[in-house]
Specification:
4 domains, 7-stranded mixed sheet, 22 helices, Beta Polymerase, domain 2, Hydrophobic Seed Protein, alpha+beta
Length: 491
């Protein structure tokens, strides 16, 4: 990196021409990224210098600068203790927060930048604790060796722009490989969540995880049990929202981590024998996820991706070998919805997200009753009503669920779904399907029947809603007549 003393250990002569070229490219990207953030970063660094402390851009910020994808979230490390950091930053920042101060981190906002400044530290878990014990370090080298991967163990000391890379992170970054600064066993013992972070970075950055790191993940998979469900969920979300989630999920399954955090996924690898052939449900689910991602229009959609991944998790429990040699999975969507709910609650997802993902899993087979378009308008209305605000996602999930290699069959399914969407669009235009409700509201019902609020109003409302779904909209006169007719049968 120009104007930077490089502390990397590997001699330049050992690098191949190809490796040197890759490193040069990475360094050029980093320089332009660092120039962009320099006014804020250098100003902050000078304030630390004047107070007798050091400051360095560190970790993910340096990695992302080298990858040419540095955003406006900047991570710094310093030898100043949190109380000193507060004194320096308070008069300078536009806003300040101390939520992470127990872990040595002070957060602030300056202009358009969100900044975190963390005191040099080392943190480790004991064998049973879910929370790290924080102790402060005295040197940047001590701080870097405790970081998760070499590509996150680089720093740029400011304001002098000195590049610090004691673990050859730059070379690993150019080679797109994940290694740990110390032994993987030490790293994962310090914080077992790093095993999931390895899978997450594989998914986000399309990196390969070094064989010794994978081996340690397999060996230490049970250590993930001491990590809180919330932290596991957050890593899983970041993995799923990455550009290559299949890569991260495959690593979780092959390492045995998934057996402990998302056991329904490896359970999809059903044994198949020569007499009872059926689609590989595990591979099918990953392909459905890939295809759902291809259909996203406004960026990554976590609800859709979770539903795509989990839509068939009810199959192992419902598999039956029929007398004619076929394999059936009757009601796997209902069983799968219940399993989805249970797993997502265990991982502390929000109630709304649990409800949405489970509903999509439950509805993902509904279209297959559509056949060649023989559904009545009533059935189409019910499809829309049952999907509610999830209808667009259900369209995408249903289309993604076709992974057959038989082009004729795939085209027929696609045409059938095109037909269903066209019918929905026509009915929506004619009947305002998005807001299906009876033609009379509760006040109308009470007025027509001359009754007070109570359960009868709810029953009448439900009856009118059924009529609306079955027959489409009625004018007021017809709705009043239908209501009176129903009421006459209610004793």
């Amino acid at each position: 990196m120009p104007n930077a003393n490089n502390h990397t250990h590997a001699p330049q002569a050992e690098r191949s021409a190809e490796s040197t070229q890759a490193l040069n490219q990475v360094q050029r990207r980093a320089v332009s990224e660092l120039l962009r953030v320099s006014p804020v970063a250098d100003d902050l660094a000078r304030r630390f210098q004047e107070a007798g402390f050091t400051l360095a851009l560190v970790g993910g910020s340096v990695r992302d600068a080298l990858l040419g994808r540095l955003g406006n979230d900047l991570d710094f490390t310093t030898d100043a203790r949190p109380e000193d950091v507060l004194k320096i930053v308070r008069p300078w920042a536009d806003a300040l927060w101390e939520v992470g101060i127990a872990f040595g981190t002070v957060g602030c906002k300056k202009s358009s930048f969100d900044i975190e400044i963390t005191t040099y530290r080392s943190e480790a878990y004991d064998r049973t604790s879910r929370k790290p014990e924080v102790s402060y370090g005295d040197s940047i080298e001590e701080d870097l060796v405790r970081r998760d991967f070499t590509v996150n163990a680089m720093a740029v000391a400011l304001p002098q722009k000195e590049f610090i890379d004691p673990h050859n992170g730059l070379e690993d970054l150019a080679a797109r490989v994940l290694r740990t600064p110390g032994t993987p066993q030490e790293s994962f013992s310090d914080d077992p969540l790093r095993m999931m972070r390895a899978a997450r970075f594989a998914a986000q950055l399309d990196f390969t995880v070094a064989p010794e790191v994978v081996a340690a993940m397999k060996e230490m998979a049970d250590r993930i049990d001491i990590v809180s469900a919330e932290r596991v969920r957050d890593e899983l979300n970041k993995l799923l929202l990455g550009a290559h989630p299949r890569k991260g999920l495959t690593l979780l399954v092959e390492s045995g981590i998934a057996d402990r955090v998302l056991p329904e996924l490896p359970a999809l690898r059903l044994e198949r024998d020569e007499h009872h052939r059926h689609k590989d449900v595990y591979e099918h689910s990953l392909t459905v996820l890939d295809q759902a991602i291809d259909l996203e229009e406004d960026g990554p959609d976590l609800v859709l991706r979770l539903a795509a991944l989990l839509h068939d998790i009810g199959k192992p429990r419902t598999r039956r070998f029929e007398k004619d040699g076929r394999v059936s999975f009757h009601h796997h969507e209902v069983v799968g919805a219940k399993m989805t709910k249970k797993r997502m609650i265990a991982l502390k997802y929000s109630n709304e997200m649990v409800k949405d993902v489970a509903r999509l899993v439950e509805l993902h087979l509904r279209f297959h009753g559509y056949g060649t378009g023989e559904w009545t308008d009533s059935a189409v209305r019910r499809y829309v009503r049952d999907a509610g605000p999830l209808l667009t996602r259900l369209h995408k999930l249903t289309r993604s669920d076709c992974t057959t290699r038989n082009k004729r069959k795939a085209n027929a399914l696609s045409r059938a779904y095109d037909g269903l969407e066209e019918r929905i669009a026509r009915l929506q235009e004619q009947e305002e399907l998005d807001a299906i409700r009876p033609d009379l509201d509760g006040n109308d019902i009470m007025q027509v029947l001359d009754i007070a609020p109570g359960p009868e109003v709810g029953k009448a409302y439900k009856h009118l809603l059924e009529l609306r779904l079955e027959n489409g909209p009625m004018d007021r006169e017809a709705a009043v007549e239908a209501l009176k007719e129903w009421w006459s049968t209610q004793g």
